[in-house]
Every structure is written in structure tokens, then in C-alpha cells.
Automatic annotation (TrEMBL):
Gene Ontology process terms (BP): cysteine metabolic process
Keywords: Pyridoxal phosphate, Transferase
Protein name in UniProt: Cysteine desulfurase
PANTHER family linked: CYSTEINE DESULFURASE, CYSTEINE DESULFURASE 1, CHLOROPLASTIC
Gene3D superfamilies xref list: Aspartate Aminotransferase, domain 1, Type I PLP-dependent aspartate aminotransferase-like (Major domain)
Gene Ontology MF terms: cysteine desulfurase activity; pyridoxal phosphate binding
NCBIfam families with a match to the protein in the record: sufS
PROSITE patterns found in the cross-reference section: AA_TRANSFER_CLASS_5
Pfam families with a match to the protein in the record: Aminotran_5
Entry keyword annotation includes Iron-sulfur: no
Length: 417
């Protein structure tokens, strides 16, 4: 039976229903937007646009109301308190804010509990996206801390035992992706948060590939910080979220400073507001926030359990599509094991970019390259893979189209001779 997507879901997405010439299998990079999001942004821009949190005009009051109710809805969507959602530019920005805040604390700018000292350890995994790796490399350089990592195996996977083996009494930060954007592996986030807590380390969750696809309850997972991007969850780009437990956010030094973040400023110093305002420096991206509010309303209306059920079926179909083709090697969990609805693969004898071009010529949009995870690709022994990824609007027919095209690719390039 085909995956249970409703035709009316596809009809909600002009970038899908309006493009019958295209099979869009690149939602892990960025998702299409439903009309509800596009019109929420446009209506706000047309009728209600004004600055937020400054001045006392009626227009500002109404825009601020829209801005703050979107925060409440996004917070409820991920199991957070409304003071625990900070607007950022994207997930990259959010992860940098945590790492830079810890660097500021280490430099004596407040938030003593976050301060790192030489010899302290930061733990990541070898599978991390560069956005959840480079900020920690820089933090280690700035503080004299040591960066350690959980190694991955030949398929790009790691286990909680591998992580436990790298944890020490000096681990102060454990940062990891909930769902890998290359392998689709789903990390046991609650267990890792609890292991981190046991050694007195902060847990930082890169929820970029989980917030759009799984029912997510950050409070219940018990992570200290989390980051995700609006543009991967049906929302606009230019908006992301830093989640942090309220008492941590109130103490983390704000790495970026300026207007809207303060209570009192003198020529010598500044006092900062509580979270979330202390982190939202400058004129806020209010239109994008309104769009993200509409995106989570849309997802909640469908129900994340239904989204996940649809994608669980597509994940199986994707794996079958890739694993059934001779000479194509699947990265990530074995067929049959749990994974997100994405599949990265290597076609023997054909460069990923040629595979991508071949699929593109058949109207199939996929992503090729290192997917911002060079260390992982180095471990896999390739410079690039091809990745197909699905979302709630993807159909079984589209996965079948990918399978049929993949069956031809090695022959086309003469790699099967
Ligand atoms: N982490 C993961 C796992 C991702 O997939 C991505 C986006 N490819 C990011 C972080 C960075 O997201 P953004 O570019 O929206 O900041």
C-alpha cells in the first residue's frame, strides 16, 4: 500500500503541486512551504508589519503580539516553555551562540557555571554537521579545552556505548545531532542527556533533522540546549531557534549584544534582560517569526505522529529503492533498522555529482556533496555521497521514480562493464 499521504497535503504546497515536472527529494536541505505559511508571511507584511518590542504605538503592540504568540506556539510544539525559545537566524547561529556564550563565560564575562578551563573536555561525534563541530573546535581553541569525539564505523554509525567510552569526569559539553543529516541515524537523546548530566556536562542537541519530522518534547528529553532551523520545517528561511532550559539561558552570557537586550546601559557597562530577550539583539526578523508560527500550526494540524508514520514507511521504501540496485552502497543503518526518511548512497564507479546530474536530468532533485560533514565522509572513504530525503508531501511513487532512475545510472556511465 502506498504511504498514507493525503493528496490534499500535496495540494497545500505550491512548490510541489505546482511543479509536476519535479520530484523533490531534498527536504533535508530545505523544505517546501505550504500556502498557509506563504500567506501568513505575506498578510503580515501587507497589513500588520511594524517593529516589535520598541516604542508604544498600537502598530508595535500588535506586531509584538504576533511575534510573541508565535513564540508560544513554537515552544509548545517542541515541549519548551515560552521563555526557553530564543529566535536566531538558523540552527548554525543558535549553536554558535551557545559556544560563544561559554567562551564569554570562560573569559570572565558572567555565567561562571559555564566557564571552561584548560584540560576540560568537549565531546562531539565524528558524524556531526560542520555547524555542530566548528563552533566547538573554536571554543576549545579559545579556552584550552580538549575536543574529543565519538568515532563512527564503516557505515557512519556510533552507539551509546561508544559515547560512554569517551565521557570522562572532565567532560563539560556533549554536543550531538538527534538525527544525522547524512546517515539518518536517530540518537538516543534522552539517555545521552542523562549520561551528560551524570558527569556534570551540558548536553547540546542539534535538532535540525528531528524537529521537522518527529514528535519532539525537549523538556522530556532533558537536554540543556537545542537548535533547529525554520526552513527545514515548512517555515521561512532566516529564522531558527535556540532552546535552553530557562535557568541556563538566564545565565549564559549573550555573545551578540546590542539593542533590545538590556535593562540599563551606561558608558561603561550594560545589564541584560532575562531570556529570551537578552539574546535577541537588533531589529527582530518578525515576518519570518510569524511564518514559522504558521508552519508549526500546519504541522500540529496534521499531527507529528501522522507525519512520522508517513515518513517511517517512506524510509523503508527509500532503503529498499537504494539497496535493491546492484553496485549502489547505502550509508547509515542496515535495511530494516530504524532511520529517518533519508538515504545517502555511493554508486560504485560513478561520482556523486554525476549521479546527481543524471537524476536531475530526469527531474529528480537530490543533494550531492559532503553535506557539511567532511570528517564523516573521510571516514566513509569518499569525498561525496548522493542523498535523497523525504517529507510529509513525498509519495511512494516518487521513491519508485528514484529507484527506476538509479537502476539505469551505472549502465549510463558504463560503470557496470
Ligand atoms: N545540523 C544538521 C544536522 C543539519 O542538517 C543542518 C542543515 N543542513 C544544520 C545543522 C545547519 O542548519 P542551518 O544551515 O539551517 O543553520
Amino acid at each position: 500500500t502506498p504511504a498514507p499521504v493525503r493528496e490534499d497535503v500535496r495540494a497545500d504546497f505550491p512548490g510541489i503541486s505546482g511543479r509536476p515536472d519535479r520530484v523533490y527529494l531534498d527536504s533535508a536541505a530545505t523544505s517546501q512551504r505550504p500556502e498557509a505559511v506563504i500567506s501568513a508571511e505575506a498578510d503580515f507584511a501587507r497589513h500588520d508589519y511594524a517593529a516589535v518590542h520598541r516604542g508604544s504605538s498600537l502598530a508595535t503592540g500588535e506586531a509584538t503580539f504576533a511575534f510573541e504568540t508565535a513564540r508560544e506556539r513554537v515552544a509548545a510544539f517542541v515541549g519548551a516553555g515560552e521563555r526557553e525559545v530564543v529566535w536566531t537566524e538558523n540552527a548554525t547561529d543558535a549553536l554558535n551562540m551557545v559556544a560563544l556564550g561559554i567562551a564569554d563565560a570562560s573569559a570572565g564575562l558572567g555565567g561562571e557555571r559555564f566557564a571552561l578551563r584548560a584540560g576540560d573536555e568537549i565531546l562531539v561525534t565524528e558524524a556531526e554537521h560542520h555547524a555542530d563541530l566548528i563552533p566547538w573546535q573554536r571554543l576549545a581553541r579559545r579556552t584550552g579545552a580538549t575536543l574529543r569525539w565519538v568515532p563512527v564505523d564503516d557505515r557512519g554509525l556510533w552507539t551509546i556505548d561508544d559515547l560512554r567510552a569517551q565521557l570522562t569526569a572532565r567532560t563539560r559539553v556533549v554536543a550531538f545531532a538527534h538525527v544525522s543529516n547524512v546517515t539518518g541515524m536517530i540518537a538516543p537523546a534522552a539517555e545521552i542527556a542523562s549520561l551528560a548530566r551524570d558527569v556534570g556536562a551540558l548536553s547540546v542537541l542539534d535538532a535540525c533533522q528531528s524537529a521537522p519530522h518527529l514528535p519532539l518534547d525537549l523538556g522530556a528529553l532533558g537536554v540543556d540546549f537545542a537548535a533547529f532551523s525554520g526552513h527545514k520545517m515548512l517555515g521561512p528561511n532566516g529564522i531558527g531557534v535556540l532552546y535552553g532550559r530557562a535557568e541556563l539561558l538566564d545565565e549564559l552570557p549573550p555573545a551578540r549584544t546590542g539593542g533590545s537586550t538590556i535593562t540599563t546601559v551606561t558608558m561603561e557597562d550594560a545589564e541584560f534582560l532575562p531570556a529570551p530577550q537578552r539574546f535577541e539583539a537588533g531589529t527582530q526578523p518578525v515576518t519570518q517569526v510569524v511564518g514559522l508560527g504558521a508552519a508549526v500550526d500546519y504541522l500540529a494540524g496534521i499531527g507529528m505522529d501522522a507525519v512520522h508514520a508517513h515518513e517511517a514507511q517512506l524510509a523503508g521504501e527509500l532503503v529498499d529503492a537504494v539497496a535493491s540496485v546492484p553496485g549502489v552502497r547505502l550509508v547509515g543503518p542496515e535495511p530494516g533498522a530504524e532511520r529517518a526518511a533519508l538515504a545517502s548512497f555511493i554508486v560504485d564507479g560513478v561520482h556523486a555529482h554525476d549521479v546527481g546530474q543524471f537524476l536531475d536530468d530526469r527531474g529528480i532533485t537530490v543533494r550531492t556533496g559532503h553535506h557539511c560533514a567532511q570528517p564523516l565522509h573521510r571516514r566513509l572513504g569518499v569525498a561525496a555521497t548522493t542523498r535523497a530525503s523525504a517529507y510529509l508531501y513525498t509519495t511512494s511513487d516518487e521513491i519508485a521514480a528514484l529507484r527506476d532512475a538509479l537502476r539505469e545510472v551505472r549502465g549510463f556511465f558504463g560503470a557496470d562493464r
